[in-house]
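Lecture 7 notes: from sequence to structure.
We start with the chain below.
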Amino acid sequence: MTEMTPFHLAFVVDDIEQAESFYAGVLGCSLGRKDKRWIDFNLRGHQITAHLADSKGVEASNPVDGDQVPVPHFGLILPWDEWEEMAERIRQSRFSFLIEPRIRFQDQPGEQGTFFVRDPAGNALEFKSFRDSEKTFARN
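Predicted structure tokens for the same chain:
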């Protein structure tokens, strides 16, 4: 794999303090700059910015290996042990899984562990892991 370039993602929230509590407290993101209507988080080297807004876009879903996956969503691909640790952090928090941790595409090239959770504003996040990181972009 090539060296990763950090990405930036801006997303809508309806409460900055709740966003900070979830992303910093539950997910363990470090804080960046902050204003009354936005806050930057360091999500494993990626800059994500929660923006306070009066309305959100429309969410859809697509069927993926037996689950209705929310669209849009964002998240991280973690090493397997860190994926399990993140799942445990969610279990220990007041948040529940939107899609429980499970193995998707079992015995196929893209086999992965995955789970979904919503932040306090309802944004969907996916955390996944591949036992073989070389298979991240494998075709079935």
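Points to note: Strands lie at 8-13, 30-34, 38-43, 46-52, 60-64, 67-71, 74-77, 97-104, 112-118, 124-129. DSSP finds two helices and ten strands in the chain.
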